[in-house]
Amino acid sequence: MKNFIFFLTLIFSSHVFACSCTKFNVAEYIKSSNKVYIGKVINKQKLRDEGKMSAALTVSEKFVGHPSDIEEVITDNSSCSAEFSINVTYLVFENKRGHVNMCSMIKLKYVPNLTLNLETLRHISKSGI
To answer: Which strand (E) or helix (H) includes residue 38?
Structure first.
């Protein structure tokens, strides 16, 4: 019985600490972003600060804010950490401190309705919204 209760506790506690992203909505994601762009990870490194990671990305398309040609982003050490894979392209919603997480740095191939969302971002970029 003790093992059964321990097992149930373990299962349910993992759901409490898991990270989940809200339904992808470009307008909502932009509200909490300082910069929005498409970038490919060219370098990553572990920072001394409590296991945080940083990544350098070459920016191929800029939508919101003023991203540089090479951006550096940081992710915290948590269940919501962004995944930094070398030579992989992401749609990035970077906050004003340069931080991202698994919800704000999405592999381009996993962006829902990619074509429509990129058209929306391009329109926003041209309109200066």
So the answer is: strand 35-46
